[in-house]
Design brief:
With 453 residues, the protein is mostly beta strands. 10% of the residues lie in helices and 52% in strands.
Length: 453
């Protein structure tokens, strides 16, 4: 099974809060035959227990709202007979106990196949895929649409402390591309009740039809380009390499650790000087070790290892973690009343090997790796998106530039990086967007000068 972190898990918990605030929820009604105009779809909900409608998520002052700024959301929940009869039971209000369906429509045109759209969306999701369906037949939950991928999935939902421990839910996720409209449909219920509601979920999926008028031009499909490049030319390894960058914005804490792990650093205006010191064999491959001299004190003096072979460029770095170190105590009348701790960045003795560039697969194809930071699994998905670019950075024009997109998900933290490498130079620009429970932050750093010996 494939492990992938679901970013919309706050919606079921908020449903009844949403309907209680004017302006937050629109068109709440019994859902039976529903026309989703923005997605060009019509969906039939069985029975008369499903309720919901268009959600004004942008108005919500909750963490995660920034992720939905370019998305239209419809949300539906299946009410239980106990709610309708007024005889609710204990446990009926537990997270995930109500079957729910969420429909997310991207406002920007999508020119990928459903498989490509699903791969892109899954980069920032986290659930376990049990089975994937693409065939349209009587035995599958796939609707009669030309571009659709359906996953049966299971997920762990981390809940706020006041709601108790995490919950396990099970359901279906469908990715649809309908006349350049990208739609994600998710349906979940508490795992213990999935069998009870699965037939309804499948019925909903199979009821979906397209109402969108055909566009004159054919769907432009962004298939991975059957082209590879020599990535070693974009990560030059001399005896000494020096880079000076200007960075605006930034991240700290868990994001800083992730960024350091993946080669981004947690820096502002900084310099990096790499001096070759020794080789190291890792998994049968020889990595070149460089002593790093930098004005970032969390990395200064570290040894970083690089390897480029078989047209794959990898880094091998020791993982550092924040720990609390007892610094002293506050006393009152000679009696200790409180310990004082200092946060220190310490080596763990563990190493992370990450593929930064992969030229052994076609341009546009995604590769995924997993590492652990502070005991949290970090899923790293990377792809070389564009090649042969011309890019101006700090009034300097660079030719033969490649664009790499990297997404990292670790627990409740996720991050997206756009990294630009110039041939014969290395990284010249990085744009990072980080998502946490506190919201969204953006940082950029650009090359000012460099030298390679």
């Amino acid at each position: 099974m494939k492990k992938i972190i679901f970013k919309y898990h706050f919606l079921p918990v908020l449903f009844f809060c949403l309907v209680g605030f004017a302006g937050k929820t629109q068109n709440v009604s019994i859902a039976q035959n529903v026309n989703i105009e923005e997605g060009g779809l019509n969906i039939t909900f069985p029975g008369s227990n499903w309720m919901g409608g268009l959600q004004d998520i942008s108005a919500l002052g909750v963490a995660g709202g920034a992720k939905l700024k370019d998305v239209i959301v419809y949300y539906y929940m299946r009410m239980k007979e106990s709610d309708i009869s007024g005889k609710s039971k204990a446990g009926d209000s537990e997270p995930g106990s109500y079957p729910s369906a969420s429909i997310f429509i991207d406002t920007k045109p999508v020119t990928k196949t459903a498989a490509g759209y699903a791969a892109e969306k899954n980069r920032l999701e986290s659930y376990t895929i049990i089975k994937t369906y693409t065939a349209q037949n009587a035995a599958s939950p796939v609707p009669n649409l030309p571009q659709v991928v359906v996953h049966k999935v299971i997920q762990q939902i981390p809940m706020p402390l006041f709601l108790g421990t995490q919950s396990t839910t099970k359901g279906y996720v469908a990715y649809i591309v309908n006349q350049k409209k990208g739609i994600s449909l998710t349906m979940f219920v508490k795992e213990a009740e999935f069998d009870k509601y699965e037939k309804e979920f499948v019925s909903i999926l199979r009821s979906i039809i397209s109402t969108a008028a055909a566009v004159p031009e054919a769907l432009t499909v962004n298939q991975p380009v059957a082209k590879t490049i020599n990535v070693c030319e974009y990560m030059p390894l001399g005896s000494r390499m020096s880079y000076t960058y200007l960075k605006t914005g930034g991240e700290s804490g868990a994001l800083g650790e992730l960024s350091a792990l993946l080669g981004g650093g947690n820096l502002r205006n900084f310099t990096e000087e790499y001096t070759f010191t020794k080789n190291k064999t890792v998994a049968g491959k020889q990595f070149k070790g460089y002593l790093l001299k930098t004005n970032d004190q969390t990395k200064n003096g570290h040894t970083l290892y690089f390897n480029c072979s078989n047209n794959d460029a990898k880094t091998h770095t020791e993982i550092y973690e924040w720990e609390k170190e007892l610094e002293g105590q506050l006393t009152q009348n000679g009696i200790p009343i409180q310990d004082i701790y200092n946060d220190v960045f310490v080596a763990t003795g563990k190493y992370a090997t990450v593929t930064q560039l992969k030229g052994s697969i076609p341009v546009g194809e995604i590769w995924t790796e997993t590492e652990f930071v502070n005991g949290v699994e970090a899923k790293i998905s990377t792809s070389i998106e564009e090649t042969g670019l011309i890019l101006e950075v700090n009034e300097e024009t660079y030719k033969d530039v490649i664009k790499v997109v990297k997404t990292i998900v670790a627990g409740s933290v996720s991050m997206r990086e756009e990294v630009y490498y110039a041939k014969g130079i290395g990284r010249i620009k990085v744009l990072t967007t980080a998502y946490t429970a506190l919201g969204e932050s953006v940082s950029t750093y650009e090359l000012v000068s460099y030298s390679i010996e």
